[in-house]
Design goal:
Number of helices: 8
Largest sheet: 8 strands, mixed
Structural class: alpha/beta
Bound molecules: glycine
CATH class of the largest domain: Alpha Beta
Number of strands: 18
Shape: elongated
CATH architecture of the largest domain: 3-Layer(bba) Sandwich
CATH topology of the largest domain: FAD/NAD(P)-binding domain
Distance between the termini: 36 Å
Length: 368
């Protein structure tokens, strides 16, 4: 049996961020991944970094998103240097546009968020940024700190940087169970044998709930499907992320990513006529000239949803040697820097940042 300080189960953006943070702090880490690094939601993601626009309110999730966003510039510099992979992080700003019925709520939100650099732009001002907006758009909330990153390249950069710091990646290997010693987890059972470890971290994204079969664990994480499409980038390219009519538009190299549906459809990752039609309808409602762009491709990913849309980060009550870093729902890419650091701190020093109280896995544990 091989032995490591920490086994990270899952090689998506969260698992690779956790592996990087741990190996950077000197831990011996192995990542066990059934496919390849970043093969699922991390690859499907549009890579929007939108803690302000994507949060329904200014609660705990909003604060964590902002904290994680602040970590990006220095983190990207470090993992780019170590891995040689550029995750194409860009603080492009985000324009959340609205038609007549959205003007008042968006204007009020812009006023509340002034401290974060946000402001309301009227119809003329939004068209100074993007003249191709539909005539029905009456203004928008401008959020200058938000932006985007390539989720797949970010995952590979975390993995490459972790490998440079000594982490091992066991790809194409399925974890089938945990090794238990009473209420303590001592490692994992895999398709390639057992691996002993002082700590195991579960980061299997939308599949994390399936680990309930591995012991007395309550993991309320369900897949939430998101269909996406990409178009050939219109010329000139969009100057920033634009969000309106229930659709977001994220410029990426020579393409424009359009997302995303929100569907409770189990582990189904089919793209459907209805899904693609809804995305095209939203995109062209915001910017009618997109109807002329060449259609490139459609795909779907599975977000790890939780009952309160917040992740589970930390230990499970009554179980030692097991840490969760899962259930990030729509914000895995955004929250990956913060999650990696928090999990590494927890495992190596036994402390979790106070700000993560809302993500304590204990909140879902059944009493009695
Ligand atoms: N973060 C974008 C989405 O989940 O659709």
């Amino acid at each position: 049996m091989r032995s490591h300080d920490v086994v990270v189960v899952g090689g998506g953006v969260i698992g690779c961020s956790v592996a990087f943070a741990l190996s950077r702090m000197g831990a011996s880490v192995v990542v066990v991944e059934r496919d390849r690094v970043g093969a699922h939601a991390s690859r499907a993601a549009a890579g929007m970094l939108a803690p302000i626009t994507e949060s329904p309110d200014e609660g705990a999730g909003f604060q964590l998103g902002l904290e994680s966003l602040d970590l990006f510039p220095s983190l990207i510099a470090e993992i780019r240097e170590l891995s040689g992979i550029d995750p194409r992080y860009l603080e492009s700003g985000l324009l959340r546009v609205g038609e007549a019925d959205e003007v008042e709520p968006l204007r009020a939100r812009a006023a509340r968020l002034e401290a974060h650099g946000c402001r309301w732009l009227d119809g003329q001002e939004v068209r100074e940024r993007e003249p191709r907006l539909a005539p029905a758009i009456e203004g928008g909330l401008w959020s200058p700190r938000e932006g985007h990153v390539d989720g797949f390249l970010l995952t590979r950069a975390y993995a490459g940087a972790a490998a440079r710091r000594g982490a091992r990646f066991q790809l194409g290997t399925t974890v089938s169970g945990l090794l238990w010693d009473k209420k303590r987890v001592r490692g994992v059972r895999t398709s390639a044998g057992e691996i002993a470890a002082a700590d195991v971290v579960l980061c299997q994204g939308a599949w994390t709930g399936l680990a309930e079969e591995w012991g007395p664990l309550h993991l309320p994480i369900q897949p939430v499907k998101g269909q996406m499409i990409s178009l050939e980038a219109p010329q000139p390219e969009l100057p920033c992320v634009i969000w309106g009519a229930g659709t977001y538009l994220v410029p990426r190299d020579d393409s424009l990513r359009v997302g995303a549906t929100v569907e409770h459809a189990g582990f189904d990752v089919r793209t459907t006529a209805a899904g693609i039609a809804a995305l095209l309808a939203g995109a062209t409602r915001v910017m009618p000239s997109l109807a002329d762009c060449t259609f490139r491709e459609a795909w779907a990913g599975l977000r790890p949803g939780t009952p309160d849309d917040l992740p589970l980060i930390g230990p499970l009550p009554g179980v030692s040697g097991l840490t969760l870093a899962a259930g990030h729902y729509r914000r895995g890419v955004l929250l990956s820097p913060l999650t990696g650091l928090a999990v590494a701190d927890w495992i190596l020093s036994g402390k979790l940042p106070a700000g993560l109280a809302a993500c304590d896995p204990a909140r879902f544990q059944k009493s009695g």
